[in-house]
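Hey,
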Amino acid sequence: MTYLSLPVRTILLLAFFLVSSSSAYAQPATFASSMDPIEVAGSDYGNTAIRMVLNASDEPVVSFGKSGHLYVAKWNAETQAFDPPVVIEPTQAIYLSDQEGPEMAAHGDLIVLTYSHSGDWVEGLRSVRSADGGVSWSDPVAVSPQTTIELFLPCVAMDDDGNPFVGVIAGGAGEDKYEAAIQSLDGGQSWLFPVNSSELMAGDEVCECCPSSPFFTQGRYYNAIRNNNSNTRDFWLVGSPDGQDWDSALDVDPIDWVVSSCPASGATVAGPMSDGSHWLAFMNQDPVSSSSRVFLTQVDLQANDGAGEWLYTGNVSPDPSEAGIQNSPVMDVRNLGDGTPLAALVWEENVGGYDVQLSLALSDGSQLGVNPMNLTSAFSGHHKKPVVRLGSATAAAPYEIDVHLVWKDAQMGVVRYLKGVASGSDGVASQETDLPIRPRIAAVGAGGFTAILPLAWRAGVWKIWDVTGRLLDSGSLNGDAQWNWGSEAPRNSRVIIVGIEPSEGVSGWAQKVVLH
């Protein structure tokens, strides 16, 4: 047995979030592109504020714009190309920002798009809807026609009945800003009066220009909001049973980034995964490198009567010291034909130039960020602001899901679209063996944990990081399939990341650990 020693201050009792159950192992998800990237529209239409949803036929519908003009383009399954873009409110100047909207949400063929008239923050919130999957669009509707307070960054989501709801920053210059929630009970044809959804959060106000991320899951309304408590930028998750009474607030970000300027970046949410948990991804400052990095948070929204419980936060990169500047994460999740969740995460990363990274995780979100695929390394220029959406599994291909991706080609001034296929389990769970296809935790004891490693993983290096991405220690594996770590009693609580990098050409593995 190999013993991995660390300084006494880090030798603690470990409790593990397992990648798979003790009886079976999910096959790793793979991705293959089925086309070369294409332009959604010409450069005359721009590539600012790219958003994408899928309609009931899994056809991508993309919104974007340029110079105050907002457009929507729908994929045409017959022509295998995007239809000419439709302009939204051509006589109005629309506020366009990569991070700050407009925003779009879909429920089947009902799609709702929310935005603001530039400079008109009191009466200028608008929504349009498409009832035919993005082919045609309604006249605009005032989202909050009776308010007298400034409202900024309307971010829209759908509940299970196909009714949209919006999270929006409320409060003008010199005023404390809170997150308001606005509901529609008729599919976006009219809107209720705003209610305060963030008053249970710590501090006096929300981040002044960070978009929120509303979503509906397990019969409850939620919104992920970046807070601003005396310039401490801290993500919270607020919840409501009905969209009107926001009765819970959960701190889901232990990093607590202190910065006086607005990060102008929000969160993205995916779930539930096979264990029922949800995952959030967001940009924070890495305390070690002082660079912007993407972090992942896991929450159990079934705990505490729907208020949720924070489980883990860590850097998306298995080795944070090797990552570049990261931002703009977007996630999505769909179930394979056997009900196994498959999650996708994309983000932009700058290592000598911006590129789009894609990571897939089957069943458990802990593998998000492990072994990402650079989708744009073969292309010149900067590629930023990616969006990913996953299609539905079909009876003909129950273990494959279409992956739809769009991003900003900064050099050419266009939106790029790429379609691929993610393949997961073959429908037959692997039987438990002494040597799994991925590392797994076999036992957790008072002195540490024991891991079982596949044959290909028995030579290489192991590394330990803390939640901020700081490398605590590293060492070499010497050939044993099992290893044990530590025997001292704990003194402090800690979340760490354990990573293994095999020396035989197998992709690395990283896993979070809660130390008690």
